[in-house]
Structure formats: C-alpha cells, structure tokens
Design a protein that fits this description.
Layout: H1 3-6, H2 12-41, H3 44-64, H4 69-85, H5 90-115, H6 124-141, H7 147-166, H8 172-192, H9 201-223
Helix pairs in contact: 2-3, 2-9, 3-4, 3-9, 4-5, 5-7, 6-7, 7-8, 8-9
Length: about 230
C-alpha cells in the first residue's frame, strides 16, 4: 500500500463521502437559518418549504459520515413527524407524533448498543431527575390538555424522556440534544394546552428542535467507533 493510498480521505469511497458530507451539512445549516428567519418574520411559506428539508439533509450528512443506521432512521422518522405536523388537524398530529415515537425507539436502540460497547451507562440519578420533571409537568398540564390527547401525549412523553436520559451514553453533545428535544416538545405541549406563550413560539420550538437533532447527531458521530460491525 502506498503512502497516498493509506492517507485517510485521500482516495476511496470514504474520502469521496467526506467531501460530499460538508456541502450537505452547509445546506442543512442554511436551510435551518432560513426556516428560523422565516418564523421570526412571519413568512409561513418559507417555513413550509424549509422544514421538510431539514431532517433529510441532516440524515444525508450523517449517512455520508458513516453514521450507524439507527441514527439515520431516527432522523428520517423525525422528517416524517415534521411533515405531518405541518397539517393543522388532530389525525395528522397523532400520526406525526407516532413517527417521532418510532424515531425515539431508533435512538433508544442505538443508545442501548452504546452501553454494550464499553461506554458508561446512563446515570440513574439523571434518570430520576428526568422522571421527577416529567411527573411534575404532566400533573400541571394534564387538566388543560384535550381529553383525547392526554393518553397519547403521556405515552409519548415517557418514551421521549427515556430517550433524553439514555442519550448521555454518547457523551455531552448527545445528552444536551436529548434535553433540548424534551424542551422542544414541552413547548409544543404548552401550546396545545393553551398556556401563555413567549413571543414567536414556533421559532423557539424549531430552534430547540433543530439544535436537539443536530447535537444528537454530533454526539453519536463523535463517539461512534471507527470500526463498526456490519449492519450498524
């Protein structure tokens, strides 16, 4: 093997993929900035165009970086949730929430594998803290939720909270991503319950959501081992 052939990223599929990954990441960042700016400006058309592009671009970047398949799947199920939540009706909301729930199962599968690869398990004290926050939040918001959404939202919240807790297996970036995902969906829930909202509430929901998915992706890519078993 020559020195040129041995140099990482100089030749071969890995190097080509890495070169494609950077433009895709740049496209994701530009679309995210456009979406957030559109929300601040009240340009709904910009949001309708930009939001469905976010997760496919992030998933494409992750795939080009050699991400494990559960991460790519989680991002794509997040895309499904994004698309369905653009529709303003209860059925679309439930289907979108279901798509996000499958994405959280993908994340939990990935985090479970991480614990089995020598990474420290998610701390129980952190899990207890998340559990307390979840219980308090549900007790407070329960009376203000529509009756037909209480059980689905509670089940989804349990799954999301478990994901946020277990994300710490992949380090501080992923842990922060899990926490922001929980915050983003809590903001959505307060809107459904018609609690008082901050100015431009959709902006804050999308800001925390985009940051959450990006940090989860960064955390997994940063901690993922170079040598991967087939099918990951």
């Amino acid at each position: 093997m020559t020195a040129t052939a041995a140099r990482p990223g100089s030749t071969g599929a890995g190097g080509r993929a890495e070169r494609f990954a950077r433009p895709v990441l740049l496209a994701f960042l530009l679309v995210a900035a456009a979406d957030l700016a559109g929300l601040l400006a009240g340009a709904e058309a910009v949001h309708l165009v930009a939001k469905p592009l976010l997760m496919p671009l992030l998933a494409g970047y992750a795939a080009l970086r050699g991400a494990p398949r559960p991460l790519v799947a989680a991002l794509l199920f997040g895309w499904g949730g994004d698309v369905f939540l653009l529709a303003d009706n209860d059925l679309a909301f439930l289907v979108g929430m279901g798509s996000f729930a499958v994405g959280h199962v993908c994340y939990l599968t990935l985090f479970g594998r991480g614990e089995g690869r020598g990474r420290a398990p998610a701390p129980l004290v952190t899990g207890a803290g998340y559990a307390v926050v979840l219980v308090v939040f549900l007790v407070l918001i329960w009376p203000d939720l529509p009756a037909d959404l209480r059980i689905p939202l509670t089940g989804y919240s349990l799954l999301l909270t478990a994901m946020a807790w277990r994300a710490g297996v992949f380090g501080p970036y992923a842990a922060a991503g899990g926490a922001l995902f929980l915050l983003s969906d809590a903001l959505i829930a307060t809107g459904i319950a018609e609690w008082p909202q901050a100015p431009a509430p959709d902006f804050w929901v999308m800001l925390t959501y985009i940051a959450a998915q990006a940090l989860l992706t960064l955390g997994v890519l940063t901690k993922h081992k170079t040598k991967r078993k087939p099918g990951e």
